[in-house]
Amino acid sequence: IQRMWFDIFALPTDHATSVKSGVLRLFRKHITSPNPAERYTVKVYLAILDKLGNEDGRLVDSIQTSSSGWLSLNVSECLQFWMQNPTENVGLYVTVTPVAASEEVLPQNVGIVGLDGADEEQPFIVALYENPEKNNTQFHVTDILKRLPRSTSDNPRGIFEKPQSGGQSSSTCGLKSLYVNFTDMGWQDWIVAPPGLDVSYCTGECNFPLSNAENPTAHAVVQTLVHTKFPDKMPKACCAPLKFGSLSVIYLQDDKSTVLKTYNNILVEQCGCL
């Protein structure tokens, strides 16, 4: 378990202001061991104190990931609570558990970057909040102030064992496969091999909150936040190719000679929200 505190003093504390959305961004480096393809469940909890001063945690979001890059977790509930109760900000918790196991692991052991990482990889929160009385909407990006590790032995009552949130919608941005036979295209007379092509394409929505599975860019995160407030002025982020692959083709020239040629950037291998 890792606890994180964020600087919320720049956020407004008047009761008229409300949080429209908040996203915690964590960067996960590529790891080579022990199993780089293993899937992990990353959960974020709002740390709260009960009337007796005992600490408890409330699950606010969770994702599953096996890839490196930026992770996005919805922490709107945390920001709203801190704005309404600024003196009760005791941070949040991040836990990481292998999907195939039940024992938590340290986030840094699976590549999640903390304060010891490069500046551009450190955790941060992007917040979008509005004040109807002032008729305005503002952004705020807050950097992490302090992060302290906590072992699972500090949690003997298992207070963070809460149900996992629901799965991702099938309509979210992703890669869809479509195989095209060259005979159906009428190209069999000049293409010798391969017999067809998997013309995978990107399809789906980029809705808030963007998850790690959608491979969102930083711009897509901001654009999605703005869209939640001004849908008529700012469109949603677009689902588009992020990574391409090559394809080798054997074909006949006009003189019936055979040519082997490799076409770069012809196959879509990964999609994301841009």
UniProtKB/TrEMBL annotation:
Keyword terms of this UniProt record: Disulfide bond, Glycoprotein, Growth factor, Secreted, Signal
Family: Belongs to the TGF-beta family.
Recorded GO MF terms: cytokine activity; growth factor activity
Pfam families named in the record: TGF_beta, TGFb_propeptide
The keyword Disulfide bond is assigned to this record: yes
Coiled coil start-end: none
Thylakoid in keyword set: no
Subcellular compartments: Secreted
Classification via PROSITE patterns: TGF_BETA_2
Gene Ontology terms: cellular component: extracellular space
InterPro entries (UniProt xref): Cystine-knot_cytokine (IPR029034), TGF-b_C (IPR001839), TGF-b_propeptide (IPR001111), TGF-beta-rel (IPR015615)
CDD domains noted in UniProt: TGF_beta_BMP5_like (cd13761)
Lineage top rank: taxon: Eukaryota
Source organism: Bracon brevicornis
Protein name: TGF-beta family profile domain-containing protein
Main location: secreted
